[in-house]
Amino acid sequence: MPGQSSVTRTKCRWEHGVQIFYNGATFETVHVNAPFHFYDDFVGHAGLEVGDTAETWEVIDVSAAGNTTPVILAGTAANAATGVVHLLMDVGQNEAQDSGLYWGDQTPVSLYNDVQIEFRLALHDAIGAATQAMWGVEGAHNADGDTVAESAWFRVQNDQVLTVETDDTINDNDTIATGVTLVADEYHIFRIDFGDLSDVKFFMDGTRYGQATTLDMTNLTAVTAMIQPIIKLDHGAVAQAGSIYLDYVRMWGTRTSYRDD
Questions:
Q1: What is the rounded distance in angstroms from the CA atom of residue 208 to the CA atom of residue 116?
Q2: Which residues pair with 242 in a beta bridge?
Q3: What CATH code is carried by the domain that includes residue 100?
Q4: Considering the domain boundaries, does residue 260 fall inside one?
Q5: What is the pLDDT of residues 140-179, one digit of tens each?
Q6: Is the residue at 94 inside a domain?
């Protein structure tokens, strides 16, 4: 029967006292029974605008002459998803550029609370050697990702090479190798698990990466553990391509740091 195959692939696991339903073939999370749950598939949005504080997402759009404004695309066969945000660099301009989404420095989520965050996205245009892309979580935003005090994210730089990074202001783990080189227009499921802050875990399509390095974020305090999601592209004063198709963002966790497991 039509649609039956996708239903029969649904599996379940328990993590940090939370029941998680996921697609056993793609490892996309389809539902979680968690006290806290955020999900945005970018369907039904009127649009994304710089400075629109009524929206969940604040737009990052830095370009003097080019077009780096994130836009929501209609679901088509070309982008293979429903409700897709296009983040882009304008290759025709030799200038510093920045394109992305975050919560405008509203940081209401505590990493103390067994948080996991998941993205489905694809590199649409190849990331140039001087361009970087990041998706994960951060504390207070800064245009220069290397100066953000608290962060954990996937990072692509140097022509599609995927790395992972964490920083809790003391333990700073930069560009940890995964051995993965991404391919343009191939969607993947990226997930970060903060259930054990002494060993933060990064997954792509259900496989863990970066585990050879212990990604310790235990220096976070109750104040500095407050985070927001971040997805962005940027480069300095060069004329270089790069773009992301972002399908969804999902985040979940507990209400407090108390767990039954």
A1: 14
A2: none
A3: 2.60.120.560
A4: no
A5: 999 888 899 999 999 998 779 999 999 999 999 999 999 9
A6: yes
Q: pTM score, two decimals?
A: 0.92
Alpha-carbon gap, residue 54 to 122, rounded angstroms: 27
Distances (CA, A) of 76 to 66, 80, 215: 26, 6, 38
Question: How many domains does the chain fold into?
Answer: 1
Q: With respect to residue 13, please indicate whether it lies within any of the assigned structural domains.
A: no
Q: Which of 40-54, 146-160, 187-201 has the highest mean pLDDT?
A: 187-201
- Report the C-alpha gap between 259 and 182 in whole angstroms: 36
15 lies in some domain:
no
Q: How far, in Å, CA of 74 to CA of 8, rounded?
A: 28
Mapping DSSP onto H, E and C, the string for 228-261 reads EEEEEEEEEEECCCCEEEEEEEEEEECCCCCCCC
Please state, in angstroms and rounded to a whole number, the distance separating the CA atoms of residues 102 and 123: 18
- Domain carrying residue 58: 38-253
Q: For residue 253, what pLDDT band results from cuts at 50, 70 and 90?
A: very high
Contact by Cβ (8 Å): 211, 166: no
- The pLDDT-based confidence of 260 (bands split at 50, 70, 90) is very low
**Is residue 259 very low, low, confident or very high in pLDDT (cuts 50, 70, 90)?**
very low
DSSP string, 185-242: T--EEEEEE-SSTTS-EEEETTEEESTTS----TT--TTTTEEEEEEEEEEEEE----
pLDDT-derived band of residue 261, with 50, 70 and 90 as boundaries?
very low
Residue 2 pLDDT > 60: no
Q: Which residue, among 31, 17, 21, has the nearest Cα to 253 in the 3D structure?
A: 17
